[in-house]
Each structure stands twice: as structure tokens, then as C-alpha cells.
Amino acid sequence: DIVDVAKCLRDPLQCHFRLAKIHEPHVSSLSVFVELIRADGHALVPYFDPLDGGVNAECLFILEAPGPKAVASGFVSRNNPDETAKNWFDLNVLAGIDRRRTATWNIVPWYLGDGLKIRAARVADVRQGSGYLIRLIGMLPKLRVVALVGRASSKVRSHIMDQYANLEIVELPHPSPT
Fold it and tell me: CA angle 102-89-110, nearest 5°?
């Protein structure tokens, strides 16, 4: 059975269960989108978490870039086994946010590390990633709110506003333990 608790994606079986769901109707087109980005030369792009809302999301949370645990699990998920994801999971539970109404993504959808250390997104990374972000937003017909999580994600605020003036854009602090 699929488990939905903080850090549960440390269990390879839980990752396997979710991987089996990436072609369900609410995330199928998003999984194809991830595979398209991979085909563009960015091999380490995690899938959308199928426990989230997928194309039915009303709120899109945007962070900076996937960390090594997201790459290991294969998903951008609040269930990844790291402290940032745990904090994100806990904050969403405290706020009473139904994850099926949300999707979580990154300005730069690919891993920016070398296996030992992740680096901050550069201007060129954000520019390239924002093109994918704008395409993603167009794939979410029920979207009403884009939440920019952390300072790095705020760099795309005007770009989103230029393309999607009807969306509410909010800024949130990053859930990193630092």
C-alpha cells in the first residue's frame, strides 16, 4: 500500500508504488512532459508526485531545483527523505492543504549538483527552466494560484505575470531547515 507520511520515500518500495502510478490520468501528461525535458538533455528530472493533484491542481508550488533525494526517489515530493521535504510535508498538514489540490515543481526542473553537492541556480538555469515552467502552467487548466517558495523562485514572478495575468501569485519562505 502507498504510504503518505513524511520521509516515506526513503523506502524503495514506496518509490516503486508511485512509479507505477505515473501514467494515471491526472499525471500522465505531466509524466510525458518530464520525459520531454529529459529528452532535451536534462537526464535528472524527477516526476511529479502522483499523490498530488497533477493536472487538476489549483495551486502550483514552485521551488528552486530538485535535490539529491528527489533524484534518488524519482519524484518532486513532500515525502522525500530530507529535512526540507519533511518541513514542507508538516507545513502543508498544519495548513490543512489537501495535496490533491496542489502540484509541486521547480524553476529549474533538473538536478544542479554533481552527486556530492548541489549548486544554486544560475541566471541561465532560471532562464532555461522558466520556459518549461510557462509550458507547465499552460498544462494546468484548474490552476488559480502559483506559490513561489523561497527567494530563488521569486525570480520568475514577472515572467509568470506577463504570460498568465489571471493567476494569483504569492511568495512563501523556503522550508529549508537553514
Answer: 65
